[in-house]
Specification:
Two copies of one chain form a homodimer. Chain A has two domains: about 150 residues, PurM-like, N-terminal domain (60s Ribosomal Protein L30, Chain: A); about 190 residues, PurM-like C-terminal domain (Phosphoribosyl-aminoimidazole Synthetase, Chain A, domain 2, Alpha-Beta Complex). In chain A, helix 3 runs parallel beside helix 4, helix 5 runs parallel beside helix 9 and helix 6 crosses helix 9. The first copy, chain A, is built from eleven helices and twelve strands. Helix content of chain A is about 35%, strand content about 25%. Chain A is an alpha+beta fold. In chain A, strands 1-2-3-6-4-5 form a six-stranded mixed β-sheet, with helices on one face. At the A-B interface, helix 1, helix 2, strand 3, strand 4 and helix 4 of A face helix 1, helix 2, strand 3, strand 4 and helix 4 of B.
């Protein structure tokens, strides 16, 4: 069997099966971060690692090296945020073609250094190699969190409300705009400066996402979230990860998904359904979490300084049902972004 | 400027310059591991990361996936050993072509799992992606060590003796044998079963090195080593790293370099100078350390259960001088193995 037949999640499942939950490992593979004992009683170490491959995760035509550096670290920071932790230190491995310019690499590291400073983390190590083709970037980020405050994917309970920060789908719309531009595809508009600013907002959301560090930490410290994940694969796919880990199902009310004006306008120009972008688009790096249904989105929003929407309810019945405004199930959305099946 | 003009060490130096020695970082880039505060008073966390690229660091013709998995983790374990630490947990990122077989990947993970069990470490996370060309493997390993027992590259003092475990050059000879075989080059011999076994020993030293975990830990716990490094780039190059970091020089007595019979025989068959292989060959994963000149190699050997040779002396005068049996300086050896200049 080839990797292309197994798919990315199949491969990760095989790797997880071989991983031994050894001494000092509180949670191994299967969440946004691994959680291991730090040696300090009551305090855990968080570990997350990400791989970015040119042509698959990024494109040198549509992103600059500096923004790529910022985003690479942001994606890992977002994993620490989704566990409720504080980021501490990271390592970077880079394989690059021999004819790549040193300026490009300097800009990449400068972008990472910006996000490192922003988040109070330090680059502590790295390895480099030439690459026969394409640029490969591998980051590993360490974080910390009190053991009893770590928020896992597995904690959702039937009856919990499902909350989401920010406006999902904007990153996917930004990517579609960039791809249209790169492909030389003429889009209608923008018809005004406002619409131009909206499109720049969307491409910015794709190229330079801001991980929700403070929000994740506050939710964990206040013990508000029963389960949490960051939206990297898309709202539907990432909610699916919570459901699978928590052994529950969910009902999502499509009309409660916050679709921004910018997303609606771009969807119209691109000929893409904004709701589909909001549910299936990836790389928003917002936080998706479950919590006591007595909590109000407005109170949560005030507590974490971000827009918060209540988008559905956890059910004992397995499966994810997405209902339209008449309560009818929406078509199944393509789920996830699997690299080997691209 | 292109990366190929800068070279690997130049690139790492640029990265190090951008790394901020932030809060909680005891030692950042520039040693075998980064050393950071673990949160537990008096105890440090060690972090090391390695990148392996097909066609540069390994060859699917001469190594099996299982041995590659064993060696990949062994190389990182060796970095923790060289700091005096105990290995704890690791993450693995893998980018692989879509048509790679699942069996190959399973064998890779199985090899890593073997070395993980051997060393008492746990695989706690990983990411996967397809690759447009070649296999990329990135490992990050965490270890632990009491802060006051960590052994750095920077601690060598003039007058210290230089010690080395094992028999260097055997891995390089093993690699040369494998390359000769792959290239269809006929070598003289082996003329006996003994010589055949010797060659298998050498290729085994290259394909399946054993990191010196217990020895490194014992040397650190006994506070015997003033500086330490593992031999990955070669004895001369790695001693050079100690000298640079410690701001000292060294005199190495070439006749004291332990050249094994197996290495001598293979050198003769390959037409390569065994002493040159012993000084410049890489990937032996032995430990090179400096210590009080009053210590005897035989006592150290008994303490750490490995052959130990005393190969020279640290000098206040900078530079590395390698002297032959008449006390004449040997030609400068090619130093290091820089990936962008290959």
């Amino acid at each position: 069997m080839k990797l292309s037949e197994l798919g990315e999640f199949g491969l990760i499942a095989r790797m997880a099966a071989m991983a031994r939950a050894g001494e000092g490992v509180i949670c191994g593979i299967g969440d946004d971060c691994a959680v291991i004992e730090s040696g300090r009683p009551g305090h855990a170490l968080l570990v997350t690692t990400d791989l970015l491959v040119e042509g698959i995760h990024f494109d040198r035509v549509t992103t600059s090296a500096r923004l790529l550096g910022r985003k690479a670290l942001a994606a890992s920071l977002s994993d620490v945020a989704a566990m409720g932790g504080v980021a501490r230190a990271f390592t970077v491995n880079l394989a690059a073609p021999r004819d790549l310019s040193v300026d490009w690499v300097d800009a990449l590291y400068a972008g990472m250094a910006e996000r490192a400073q922003w988040s109070g983390t330090s680059l502590v190590g790295g390895d480099t190699s030439s690459s026969p083709a394409a640029i490969f970037l591998s980051l590993t980020l360490l974080g910390a969190c009190p053991v009893d405050e770590v928020v896992y994917r597995r904690g959702a309970r039937p009856g919990d409300a499902i909350f989401l920060t920010g406006r999902p789908g904007e990153s996917a719309a930004g990517l579609a705009l960039l791809q249209a531009e790169k492909g030389g595809r003429a889009l209608p508009g923008p018809r005004s400066d406002g619409e131009k600013a909206e499109r720049e907002h969307l491409t910015g959301r794709h190229l330079d996402p801001e991980p929700r560090m403070t929000a994740g930490r506050r939710l964990a410290a206040a013990k508000r979230a029963t389960a949490m994940i960051d939206v990297s694969d898309g709202v539907a796919a990432d909610l699916g990860h919570i459901l699978e880990r928590s052994d529950v199902g969910a009902r999502v009310d499509a009309p409660s998904i916050p679709v921004s004006d910018a997303l609606r306008a771009a969807g119209s120009a691109l000929g893409l359904d904004p709701l589909r972008l909001a549910l299936a688009g990836g790389e928003d790096y917002e936080l998706l979490f479950t919590a006591d249904p007595g909590l109000h989105a407005t109170d949560l929003s005030r507590a974490i300084d971000l827009p918060v929407s209540r988008i559905g309810t956890i059910t004992a019945e397995p499966g994810l049902r997405i209902l339209d405004h008449d309560g009818r199930p929406l078509d199944l959305l393509r789920s996830g972004f699997e690299h080997f099946r691209m």
